[in-house]
Amino acid sequence: MKRLLFLGIVMFFPISGHSQDSNLGNWLLYFGNMKINNDWNWHNEVQYRSYNVIDDLEQLLIRTGIGYNLTENNNNALLGYGYILSQNYLEDSDDKVNVNEHRIFQQFITRQNIGTIAVQHRYRFEQRFIESDFRLRFRYFLSLNIPLNNKEIIDNTVYLSAYNEIFLNTTGDIFDRDRLYCGAGYCLSKAVRFEVGYMNQFMPNTNRDQINIVSFVNF
Predict the structure, then answer these.
(1) Residue pair 215/30 in contact by the 8 Å Cβ criterion
(2) CA-CA distance, 77 to 33, in Å (whole number)?
(3) If residue 47 lies in a helix (H) or strand (E), which one and from where to where?
(4) Which among 214, 217, 218 is positioned nearest to 49, based on CA atoms?
(5) Which residues contact residue 6 at a Cβ distance below 8 angstroms, ignoring those fewer than 6 apart?
(6) What are the phi and psi torsion angles at 132 (to 5°)?
(7) How many separate helices (H) and strands (E) can be counted in the chain?
(8) Phi, psi of 189, rounded to the nearest 5 degrees
(9) What's the first-to-final CA gap in the chain, in angstroms?
(10) pLDDT tens for residues 129-160?
(11) Angle made by CA atoms 165, 112, 212, in degrees to the nearest 5
(12) Which of 86, 142, 176, 212 has the fewest Cβ atoms within 10 angstroms?
């Protein structure tokens, strides 16, 4: 199992091996989901993104939303709101400037299984109020979770995780960014799982390497 885990992670690393000029940052991510009833759910998340290990804030993101299950467990539509505080470095300076963003978004998630692989598609449309600017953006997210010691991700399951997400603007430069991620996780129970992985974020003029530490809580 350890050999499979190591091999799965290494297979993804060469894709971003050319990014020698990018700095290594760290993202701490919490995703929560509360079942209100069989039809409705409340999504909540907090992301602390740092330029380095933990003490140089790049971005603080708080997001929440109310979702509705179109079919049980497999298809969910959600309306949400996000607040994002970015601390951007001024060019050729150690000084930062705060940028505040309020974001409204609509998303649709659909899930399926291909053998033992859990597949998720997420389509998200964002209306972004960035200081005095307004922008629109579309995002498509595809993820794979592959259990290693069970046929599905249940209690006490070790699994591999991978995703790719592309961001597209509606005006100006269409391509905004692309995120490629691979990692390994442990499902403690139906309510809690943890994950750690590596992400490379490709942008028009640069790219960045990130370590992601993630927790998922259903309550």
Answers:
(1) yes
(2) 14
(3) strand 40-50
(4) 214
(5) none
(6) -100, 10
(7) 1, 11
(8) -160, 180
(9) 30
(10) 999 999 999 999 999 999 999 999 999 999 99
(11) 35
(12) 142
How far apart CA 73 and CA 63 sit, in angstroms, is 21
From residue 75, how far is each of 9, 70, 206 by CA, in Å?
29, 5, 35
pLDDT in tens, 73-118: 799 999 999 999 999 999 888 899 999 999 999 999 999 999 999 9
CB atoms under 10 Å from CB of 171, counted, come to 8
- Other CB atoms closer than 10 Å to residue 58's CB: what's the count? 20
Tokens (6 digits) for 208: 């960045």
Cβ-contact 83, 62 below 8 angstroms: yes
Backbone angles phi, psi at 2, to 5 degrees: -65, -40
Q: 6 — phi, psi (to 5°)? A: -65, -45
- Compute the distance between CA of residue 14 and CA of residue 141 in angstroms, rounded to an integer: 21
Q: Which residue has the tokens 């150690």?
A: 94
* pTM of the complete model: 0.87
Q: b vs e for 105-119, b when ≥16 Cβ sit within 10 Å of the residue's Cβ?
A: bebebeeeeeeeebe
Structure token digits, residue 126:
């964002």
**DSSP assignment of 207-219, as one string?**
EEEEEEEEEEEE-
d(CA 20, CA 15): 12
What φ, ψ does residue 68 adopt, rounded to 5°?
-130, 130
